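Practice problem: predict the structure.
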Amino acid sequence: MNKVRIITKVERTLCNNLNGLLRVGINTLKLPKGIQWDEVVCREHASLSTTEKVDDKVPVFSSTLKFYTCQDLQDHKNYAYRLRLADGSHLLLGTERRPFPVMNVQDSLPEKPSDNSWTEITITWSSLCPPAQIVG
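Answer:
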């Protein structure tokens, strides 16, 4: 069975809101109740790529989330990102512990009014586990 792996929604919360997160497998986790998520308005669709490399016999996963937005997201706080996929499942990028996801912002002023004036956001996160599916 093929899965549709398209990101339809990006949300974020402060990393310290994830205290009590329970990892139930390398690829799955349960979130604590009552987390307040803030939706990030994105131009369709965000992209996520994850690579795995072995460093000193330890697998390290590096994930990169890219999207375009018209929101000002720079407030220099540590955020984790919940990604909703087209099939209704959710992935979590980040945890309550270091290393936290790092946001890079590329803001450009177009030459022509018809050119893209959205802000490009790139979130990078490295961890010993890949982005996990949220269950329960």
